[in-house]
Amino acid sequence: MPVYNLYMGCSVPANYPNYEAATIKVAEAFDMQLEYMDGVACCGSPNLRAIDYMGWLTVNARTLAIAEKNGHDIVTPCNGCFASLKDVYHFLKHDDAYRKKVNAVLKKESLEFKGTITPRHFVEALYTDIGVEEIKKKIVKPLDGVGIAIHYGCHVLRPVDVTEFKPEYLDALVEVTGASVIEYPLWKQCCGATVLPVNESLAIRLARDKLKSMKEYGAVFITVVCPACGNQLDLQQLGLKESYGEEYNLPVILYPQILGLALGMNEEEVGLSMNRVPADPILNHLTS
Asked: Which of 189, 236, 269, 271 is 20 to 30 A from 15 in CA distance terms?
């Protein structure tokens, strides 16, 4: 049984109990032991990095140091948290001067960043530690080939030498549920979530362009592995309907929800009713 430190972050437990519930249920299905971390703070993504770089380094190094003390790799279902933890891990592993500065602060709590454990996204752990073939063995209600567009999210894709996350991971995880992955031109484009607080019109345009691209290339559903991206693509569909009279009707479904349904879990177990754009049509594509 693989054991992990679970860093849930702020956004998921505060705004997406469906993501948290589905993640936990999927982990249980594959005997992945997720241990909630005690005493950790917000990762500060993305604002703290911009206004207090040393503070951002320290707070994430502290989380990594706690995980090291616990002795297990750290996993998170949030792209923003993943990016912060992975970026700080990579930076401090390669910068002796900053590592010494950060550890001087952490020493006050008897903590030290050594870089002995790896921060990882939950879906990456699914792909690499459990594996597609093992997942396939437990699929009891596969999807009927329905077209799903994946929005990977900026923070897991860039920079690739830091994140070490490949889009193919999520492609394979979606396909093992029986769905078809829809290829669309704007798959790398930002959804606009982090732009929203500073340039609302640009954020709306980015989401609109993305949704149009997905719809035009045959998507019936969207899947994401990031709460901020999910919120943006979900919420803007409601706004675009009101402002532009455009209806996309593309339910945004968190990946663990899709996998959970294919594993035979019911809609309540994966929190399907909590999605803003009704996601229950996915149930019509499950085969018994």
From this structure: 189
